[in-house]
C-alpha cells in the first residue's frame, strides 16, 4: 500500500500523540488525531518540560533518554515554532549525588558562578550541560499545527468510547460523534489506554502518578539553568515566570504544596521574595506497571499500536521518530524488545 493511501488514527493529542502525528505526516501518511478534550489537556499540560537525559545505565528508559537530546535538536530545526532552552540542569538531590562519580561534581564556588542568585549553594552538584527544557503545551500545539499543515486532521472534544474490532483486526474507534475507520489505531492517550484495552480483553497495567505544576510570577530573572534539588525543582518559562514541579503530597493538598514550594523558592533564591502564585495544575502521569516504556503492536489483533511512558516530554522527540518508522516499515529494530507490550500479555 502506498504511504499516501494508508490512514493511521492516533488517540490522544498530548505530546506523544502530537510527535507521532508530525513524523507520520512529514512522511506523507494520512493521519487523524482524536482527543476527548483539546491538545495537551491531560498529563502533558501539567508537565515540567525537563529534557532530562542523565540516568543510570540500568534505568528502564535509558535508551530513550540518551537519544532524546539529539532528536529534540533535530525537531528544533524542522519545526521553527518550537522553543527549547538549552542551559543544562544543575542537580543536587540525593539520587543525583549518589548516581554520579565524585569527579563529575561541581564544587560550591562553581555552583555560585552558574547560579549567582542561590542562597547557601549546596557543597556539591551535578551539572548536565546537555539537558534542556521545552514548554510541553506550546510544543504539542506546534507539532500538531505543523502536522495539520502537512495534511493531518485533528478532532477535539471527541471522546473515544471503544475500539472497533472485525475478527482479528482493529479497524477504527467508536466515539460519541460516530465511528472513525483506519488502517491502524495508535493509542497514545496515557492513562486512558488501559480501559480501552481492557474492553477487548488485553491487559496493559498503567498506573496514574499525580504531579503538580506550579507557576509563579517574579520581577527578575533569577535562574540560569534548570535547578533540581531536594528542596526545589524550578526553571524559568519562556515568558520569565518560574515553573516548579512537585510530586503530589501524601498528606495535604495542592494549595498547601504551592505555599510550601513558594517558601522553599524564596529561601533558596535571591530576588523571589515578591513572587506570587499564578496557577497550579495536577497531571496524572501514565507510568507502566514495570516503569519500562511501552511501544509496539499489541496482542493477537492486528492494526493496534500502543505508545506510553514516563517521562513523556523527555522522550517524545525520539518516540515520534521510532514509532513513525515502525508504523511505516513494519518493524523498527531500534526499539528494544523489553519495551514491547507483549511482556504483559505473556504473564
UniProtKB/TrEMBL annotation:
<dbReference type="Pfam" id="PF01266">
    <property type="entry name" value="DAO"/>
</dbReference>
<keyword id="KW-0812">Transmembrane</keyword>
<dbReference type="InterPro" id="IPR006076">
    <property type="entry name" value="FAD-dep_OxRdtase"/>
</dbReference>
<feature type="domain" description="FAD dependent oxidoreductase">
    <location>
        <begin position="8"/>
        <end position="325"/>
    </location>
</feature>
<keyword id="KW-1133">Transmembrane helix</keyword>
<protein>
    <submittedName>
        <fullName>FAD-binding oxidoreductase</fullName>
    </submittedName>
</protein>
<feature type="transmembrane region" description="Helical">
    <location>
        <begin position="6"/>
        <end position="25"/>
    </location>
</feature>
<keyword id="KW-0560">Oxidoreductase</keyword>
<dbReference type="InterPro" id="IPR036188">
    <property type="entry name" value="FAD/NAD-bd_sf"/>
</dbReference>
<keyword id="KW-0472">Membrane</keyword>
Amino acid at each position: 500500500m502506498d504511504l499516501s493511501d494508508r490512514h493511521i488514527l492516533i488517540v490522544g493529542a498530548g505530546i506523544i500523540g502530537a510527535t507521532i502525528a508530525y513524523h507520520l505526516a512529514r512522511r506523507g501518511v494520512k493521519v487523524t488525531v482524536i482527543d476527548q478534550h483539546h491538545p495537551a489537556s491531560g498529563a502533558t499540560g501539567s508537565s515540567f518540560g525537563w529534557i532530562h537525559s542523565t540516568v543510570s545505565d540500568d534505568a528502564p528508559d535509558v535508551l530513550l533518554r540518551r537519544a532524546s537530546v539529539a532528536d529534540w535538536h533535530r525537531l528544533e530545526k524542522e519545526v521553527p515554532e518550537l522553543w527549547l532552552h538549552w542551559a543544562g540542569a544543575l542537580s543536587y538531590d540525593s539520587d543525583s549525588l549518589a548516581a554520579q562519580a565524585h569527579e563529575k561534581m561541581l564544587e560550591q564556588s562553581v555552583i555560585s558562578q552558574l547560579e549567582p542568585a542561590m542562597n547557601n549553594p549546596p557543597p556539591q552538584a551535578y551539572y548536565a550541560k546537555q539537558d534542556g527544557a521545552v514548554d510541553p503545551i506550546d510544543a504539542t500545539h506546534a507539532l500538531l499545527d505543523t502536522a495539520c499543515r502537512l495534511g493531518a486532521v485533528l478532532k477535539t472534544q471527541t471522546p473515544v468510547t471503544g475500539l472497533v474490532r472485525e475478527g482479528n483486526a482493529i479497524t477504527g474507534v467508536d466515539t460519541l460523534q460516530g465511528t472513525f475507520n483506519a488502517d491502524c489505531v495508535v493509542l497514545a492517550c496515557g492513562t486512558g489506554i488501559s480501559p480501552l484495552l481492557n474492553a477487548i480483553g488485553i491487559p496493559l497495567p498503567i498506573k496514574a502518578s499525580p504531579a503538580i505544576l506550579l507557576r509563579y510570577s517574579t520581577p527578575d530573572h533569577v535562574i540560569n539553568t534548570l535547578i533540581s534539588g531536594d528542596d526545589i525543582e524550578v526553571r524559568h518559562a519562556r515568558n520569565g515566570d518560574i515553573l516548579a514541579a512537585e510530586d503530589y503530597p501524601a498528606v495535604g493538598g495542592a494549595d498547601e504544596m504551592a505555599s510550601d514550594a513558594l517558601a522553599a523558592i524564596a529561601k533558596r533564591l535571591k530576588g523571589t521574595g515578591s513572587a506570587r502564585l499564578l496557577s497550579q495544575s495536577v497531571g496524572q502521569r501514565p507510568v507502566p506497571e514495570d516503569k519500562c516504556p511501552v511501544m509496539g503492536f499489541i496482542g493477537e489483533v492486528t492494526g493496534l499500536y500502543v505508545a506510553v511512558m514516563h517521562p513523556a516530554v523527555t522522550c517524545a522527540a525520539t518516540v515520534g521518530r521510532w514509532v513513525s518508522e515502525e508504523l511505516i516499515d513494519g518493524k523498527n529494530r531500534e526499539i528494544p524488545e523489553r519495551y514491547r507490550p507483549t511482556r504483559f500479555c505473556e504473564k
